[in-house]
Amino acid sequence: MGYYLKAFIGQKESLAPIRNKYSNSKLVDLTDKISMIPITDELFDEINQMENSSEISSFEFLTKNIENKTLDLIGNKKLAYFESEFFGGQGGHIGLIWVNGKREFIGEFRKDTLNKILKKLGVIKNGNQDEFETVGLDRHRNTEDWID
Predict the structure, then answer these.
(1) Long-range contacts of 90-94 (CB under 8 A, 24+ apart)
(2) What's the pLDDT tens digit per position in 64-109?
(3) Which runs of E-coded beta strand occur in the chain?
């Protein structure tokens, strides 16, 4: 069974401009401090508006167009974006964090990248759980499942 998720993640206040602008966005509270907006195909199309744009680094769904529109919306807020893909125990996460209108951190496709991002967003792991489990990102295995 696979795990596939792509989303914006951060504090609710940082996600509010995206939620307010795009009708296909859904805010999902993970903890009292961390929320996310899963990037469904419909939200991707709504933000990108079918414009051709090159991808950033080795992201599959983050284009320069989407990054620019996101940065225009969030201003100087801190926000992260990540893509996760696992199948049969193989895979990883890729992600970045924007702060003050620019990239502060970019993590390559590795198993620990999302935990690094969550730490930088202030998540403190709970007991034997890592940051990923602490915020409950293991509750669903597919981007679309977070919307239902």
Answers:
(1) 91/3, 93/117, 94/57, 94/58, 94/59
(2) 999 999 999 999 999 999 999 999 889 999 999 999 999 999 999 9
(3) 2-10, 28-29, 35-38, 79-87, 90-99, 102-110
Residue pair 18/28 in contact (Cβ under 8 Å)? The answer is no
Q: Nearest to residue 108, comparing CAs of 120, 92, 121? A: 92
The answer to pTM > 0.90 is yes
| Spatial contact of 39 and 76, defined as CB atoms under 8 Å apart | no
Spatial separation of the C-alpha atoms in residues 5 and 137, rounded to whole Å: 9
Cα(34)–Cα(13) distance, integer angstroms: 10
Q: Which of 39, 19, 40, 37 is nearest to 29 (CA)?
A: 37
